[in-house]
Amino acid sequence: MSVATKTESTTAADATLWKTIHRVVFPTDGDTDTLPLYVDFNPAQRVVAKDDAAAKSGASTTAAVPAAAMLGSRQRTDYVQGRRSLRLPAFRRVSFGTYFNAFPASYWRAHTNVEKVRLTVEADGDATVIVYRSTPRGTANRVESLSVAKGTPVSIDLSIMNFADGGWYWFDFATGENPTTLDRAEWSVPQPDGFVAGTLSVGVTTFNRPDYCVKHLRTFAESEDLTEVLDCLIVTDQGNRRVRDEPGYEEAAANLGGRFKLVEQANLGGSGGFARGMLETVKAGKSKYVMLLDDDVLIETEGVLRAVHFADFTREPTIVGGHMFNLFERAVVHNFGEAINEYRFRYESAGKSEEVHDFGASNLRTTPWMHRRIDVDYNGWWMCLIPTAIIEDIGLSLPVFIKWDDVEYGIRAKANGYGTVTLPGAAVWHMPWTEKDDTIDWQAYFHQRNRWLAAMLHSPYARGGRMPVESMLVDVRHLLSMQYSAVELRHQALEDLLEGPVHLHRNLGTKLPEIRRVRSTFPDATVRQDITTFPPARRVKPPRFGRQPSAPQSLPGALTAALSGALHQLRGVREGAADFPEAVVPAMDARWWRLVGLDSALVSASDGAGASWYKRDAKKFRKYMARSVALHQKLLLRWDELAATYQRELPNFTSPGVWEQTFAANPALDSAPAPVTDK
C-alpha cells in the first residue's frame, strides 16, 4: 500500500464512508501557556541525541532545543480565530506537530483494524500543507506537499500500516503572499460495514468542590459536539458543601436537559463515587461507555470525543485513558504512561517515557522518546473511558476508598483479556501531586492496605516478590524520621488486611473518621499554621565535624546511615530536645537521612500550610519496630491463604449487588431530599 494518495474529494466510485475521529482545534481563551500543545511556532524541526548509537536505539535524549530556535519561538494567540480556525500573515509557517493536533498513528495501528487515515484541510486562500510522519526513533520524514486553494478542501490518504512500534502524522501550514485562514483540518478513517457509533455517560466524583462541578456542567452543556455523544453526566456528591447549593447550578443543570443526574451519598471516597458512576451507567442501559472524571480538572472537550471515537474502532473492548497535565504549569504532562513493576508491585512510568515533560520547552517534534508508542497497564481515573461490557464482565471498582482502585482495575481488566490505552490527544489539566506528601497523612493507611490487597489479588510472584520487604523498609524509614502517626496507620492497614475481605465494604464509610481521630493524638500529625507558636529551635549537639547531613550515595552508605540512626533511636532523648526543637526542616528536606540524627524538629507541611513538631520517642520506636516485624511475618506466613480468599471473593465484593447494599447503607449525611435526584 502506498504511503499517501492525494484526493480532492470522495468520488462517486468511492462508496467508503469516512468517520472524522480527530479534528485540529485551538484554545480560544488566549492562554499562551497552553498554546504550545496546539500550535508549534518553533522553526526547529527536531532534536536528536548527540550520540548516534543512542539515536539508533531510540534511547531518551537530554539534548535541549537550540537557543536560536527558542529565541525564534513566538506564541501568537491573536492568530487563533476560533475553535477550529487560525489566521496567519503572509509568508508565515506553523506546525501542527503538537500534542493535541498531531495524529497518533501508531496507537491506531496497534489497537484497531484501521489501515489508513485521511487528512482534509480547508482554507480561505492559497496556502501550502506539508505532511510529515515520524519513526519510533523520533526522526521526521516529509511525506507530501499539497497546494490549498480558496474554498476547496484538499485531502490526502495516508497508510498507517508501517507504524508498528511508533510514529505520528502531522502537517505544517504555510502561507504565500497573502494572509490566509486555516478554516478547518481533520483526520478521518473508513467506517467498516455495520459500524455503530457509541455514546457515553460521564461519572464525576466530588467531595466539597461544588464550584468545579458546576464548571463541568457548563463545559458539557456548552459543547454541542459533546452533547451528541453524551447520554448522561452523573455527579456523585459525597460532601457537605452541596453541588445543588452552588450559584449557577440550576441553570447549568437545566442546560443539560435530561442528560444530567445528581447522586448524593455519604463519603465513600473516590472508589465509592466512581463505582456509583459505573453502576448508574450500567443500570441505565443506554451507554456503550462510561468515562470516569475527577472533579478538580479542566477538560479539553475534543479529547473526550477522541477517546470515544478510538474506543469505537478498537478490535476488542478497550479502556481508553487520557493524560494528565499540570493545572499550574499548563504545558507540563505528568507522564506518558503508567505501568506496574510486578516484582516490587509499585506503579512507575511505562516504557521509555519520562515524567514531567514540558511541551513549552520541547514540543513533540523535538522530543524523540515520545514517538515510540507507550504501552500501559492502567490509566489513572482523572480521565478514563471504560466500556460497559468490561464492567458487566469484571465488576465495579474495589471498595478501597482511595488509592490503587484505578491501578487494580487496569490489572484486573488485563487479566481478563481487556487492554488499556493511554491515548495521546486526550487529556485533562489536574492539580499536581508534587506539592504534597500523601504517604504520611491520612492516606498512609490506604496506600499500605490497598497496595497489599492489589498484590494479593494479582502478584505473579510467591508472597508478593519484593513488595513485603519494601513495606517493612518503609516502616523503618518512617520510624527513623519520627513519623509515628504514619506507621500507626500502616499497621492498622495490615491488621485490617489480615481480617479478610469482610472488612472492605464494612469499613468503607467509617474508616476515614477513625483514621483522623487516631492521627490527632500524634504530634507529628498536628499542624499549626502559625510557626511562631512553637518554641525557637535550639541545637543541643552540633553536627559531627561540622558536616550537614546529605543523601547517601550508595547502598553501603545508606545501610551505614540507617544502622547509625537505629542505634541513635535506642538511646535516651537529649536533654532539652523535648522543650525546644533542635532544627527547622523544610518539607522538601524532611528525609530520613536528614531527620535520623535529631531528637526533635519543626517540619513544615508539604502544602506550606504550617508545621508539625516531630519528637523522637525511643519507647515508640521499639514498640513499632516489634509490631512491624510481627505483622509482616504474620502476613507472609498467611500469604497463600489470604491471597486465595481475596481472589475467590473478588467477584463478590466488586459486584453491583454488594455495592448497591453499601450505597443503601450510606445515604447522604444531611437532611437533603432523596439521595438520588434526576434533573
UniProtKB/TrEMBL annotation:
Pathway(s) the chain acts in: Cell wall biogenesis; cell wall polysaccharide biosynthesis
Domain Galactofuranosyltransferase GlfT2 N-terminal span(s) in chain numbering: 77-189
Stored Pfam families: GlfT2_domain3, Glft2_N, Glyco_tranf_2_3
Keywords, ordered alphabetically: Glycosyltransferase, Transferase
UniProt superkingdom: Bacteria
Residue ranges occupied by any Galactofuranosyltransferase-2 C-terminal domain in the UniProt entry: 474-664
Gene3D superfamilies, A to Z: 3.90.550.60
InterPro entries to which the protein is assigned, alphabetical: GlfT2_C, GlfT2_N, Nucleotide-diphossugar_trans
Any GO molecular function: glycosyltransferase activity
Protein family according to the UniProt entry: Belongs to the glycosyltransferase 2 family.
Name under which the protein is recorded: Glycosyltransferase family 2 protein
UniProt source species: Arthrobacter wenxiniae
